[in-house]
């Protein structure tokens, strides 16, 4: 496994200062991406509690936090106090970006809404993460990713038609939203630095980014009047595309999404006769007769082991790959030769395997130079220059900071 990557001094976002008030996945995904490319990310967390992501433990280890808290510093600050809010505003005055994920209206009730933030720092880029957005009929409703994955149309199209809709086994809406959010931050910073405007507010819901990647659903529904049925691992746009069981009980994925690839696949499995069958002559017909087509392809694949199928398809240039779990991936050559996983720094000087920096830039690559921080680990380091040692000591005595 590759060692953790340290960002070079030429990292693209060096000099960008981010104050992160967010909690859980979307905000941490967003600020992790910025931190990976050199931004100085300061997590502002509730004293004694911290980001709830710290409490997603595996075998007692804060593995989610180790990965998505990397390249960040932590300040423990109680925003329910006036002194805590004043300290935050001083931090905002030195920041380029502020990220928050409170329910809409919360910052305003604290006296920390965008208007107040812009008084302190007119060039600030404010990212407001919520389930449903800052406007609309659902704005004030709770918006965890699971609810978004249900309402967005994702669950309705995921799974098999004769069974219940299937939610994703991961924080999909949050991850997609956080990635969109990092792009939005860079867009806003570009606009600011080019003089097009000062700071601005980014209204980032979990719902819209997920909906946007589901394909042209609205256009298709208006054009056809039909709601697509769940198709399992099949595609609604091309056939054959599915997972097929091999003779040794493994699974193989195939995507023959072009006419040429379908012809190559059917010839390779010894069924060139299917190409002359009107039911399979083009993609439109294959989608109409996908049951029969999958039966023929599946029968041929079931006659060979996974290894034999892969050897056959590799030699013929057929687009196929094994269905792998994480144990198989970590033990395979692709992860090693590509460096997909690195040994990142863990608190206390250890190492923890985590995904490498994505994407890969040739000139200003990102890296991992800082383990996920302990709660309040950098409170003095960050706030002492802004508040002074004497005030900081008093606030610590009062429990405002920790």
How would you portray this structure in words?
The chain has 402 residues and is α/β, with parallel strands linked by helices. The chain has 2 domains: 2-213 and 338-397, Crotonobetainyl-coa:carnitine coa-transferase, domain 1 (Rossmann fold), CATH 3.40.50.10540; 241-330, formyl-coa transferase, domain 3 (2-Layer Sandwich). It has 18 helices and 12 strands. It has helices at residues 24-36, 63-68, 82-92, 106-109, 114-120, 145-151, 154-157, 172-193, 207-212, 217-224, 259-268, 283-288, 290-302, 306-316, 326-330, 333-338, 379-387, 389-397; strands at residues 2-3, 17-20, 40-45, 72-76, 97-100, 125-130, 200-205, 241-245, 251-255, 320-322, 341-345, 351-355. The strands form 3 sheets. The protein has a 6-stranded parallel β-sheet with strand order 4-3-2-5-6-7, sandwiched between helices. Helix 2 links the parallel strand 3 (40-45) and strand 4 (72-76). Helix 1 (24-36) crosses helix 8 and helix 17 packs across helix 18. The radius of gyration is 25 Å and the shape is elongated. The relative contact order is 0.16.
Helix and strand topology:
Blueprint: E1 2-3, E2 17-20, H1 24-36, E3 40-45, H2 63-68, E4 72-76, H3 82-92, E5 97-100, H4 106-109, H5 114-120, E6 125-130, H6 145-151, H7 154-157, H8 172-193, E7 200-205, H9 207-212, H10 217-224, E8 241-245, E9 251-255, H11 259-268, H12 283-288, H13 290-302, H14 306-316, E10 320-322, H15 326-330, H16 333-338, E11 341-345, E12 351-355, H17 379-387, H18 389-397
Parallel strand pairs: 1-11, 2-3, 2-5, 3-4, 5-6, 6-7
Antiparallel strand pairs: 8-9, 9-10, 11-12
């Amino acid at each position: 496994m590759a060692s953790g990557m340290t960002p070079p001094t030429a990292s693209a976002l060096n000099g960008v200062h981010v104050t992160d008030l967010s909690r859980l996945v979307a905000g941490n995904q967003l600020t992790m991406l910025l931190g990976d490319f050199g931004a100085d990310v300061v997590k502002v967390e509730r004293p004694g509690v911290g980001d709830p992501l710290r409490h997603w433990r595996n075998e007692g280890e804060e593995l989610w936090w180790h990965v998505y808290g990397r390249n960040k510093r932590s300040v423990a600050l109680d925003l329910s106090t006036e002194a805590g809010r004043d300290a935050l505003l001083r931090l905002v005055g030195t920041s380029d970006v502020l990220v928050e994920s409170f329910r809409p209206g919360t910052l305003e009730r604290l006296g920390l809404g965008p208007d107040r933030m812009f008084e302190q720092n007119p060039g600030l880029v404010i990212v407001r993460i919520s389930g449903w957005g800052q406007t609309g009929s659902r704005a004030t409703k709770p918006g965890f990713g699971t609810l978004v994955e249900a309402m967005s149309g994702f669950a309705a199209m995921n799974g098999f038609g004769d069974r219940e809709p299937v939610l994703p086994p991961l924080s999909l809406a949050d991850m997609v939203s956080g990635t969109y959010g990092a792009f939005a931050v860079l867009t806003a910073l570009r606009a600011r630095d080019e003089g097009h405007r000062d700071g601005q507010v980014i209204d980032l819901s979990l719902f819209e980014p997920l909906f946007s990647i589901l394909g042209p659903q609205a256009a298709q529904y208006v054009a056809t009047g039909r709601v697509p049925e769940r198709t399992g691992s099949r595609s609604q746009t091309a056939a054959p595309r599915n997972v097929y069981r091999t003779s040794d009980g493994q699974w193989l994925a195939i995507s023959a999404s072009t006419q040429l690839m379908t012809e190559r696949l059917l010839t390779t499995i010894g069924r060139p006769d299917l190409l002359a069958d009107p039911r399979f002559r083009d993609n439109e017909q294959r989608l109409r007769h996908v049951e029969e087509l999958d039966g023929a392809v599946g029968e041929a694949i079931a006659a060979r082991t996974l290894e034999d199928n892969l050897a056959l398809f590799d030699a013929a240039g057929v687009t196929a790959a094994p269905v792998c779990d994480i144990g198989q991936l970590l033990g395979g050559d692709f992860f090693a030769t590509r460096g997909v996983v690195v040994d990142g720094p863990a608190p206390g000087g250890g190492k923890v395997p985590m995904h490498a920096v994505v994407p890969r830039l040739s000139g200003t690559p990102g890296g991992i130079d800082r383990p996920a921080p302990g709660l309040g680990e950098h409170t003095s380091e960050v706030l002492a220059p802004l508040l002074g040692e004497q005030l900081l000591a008093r606030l610590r005595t009062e429990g405002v900071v920790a």
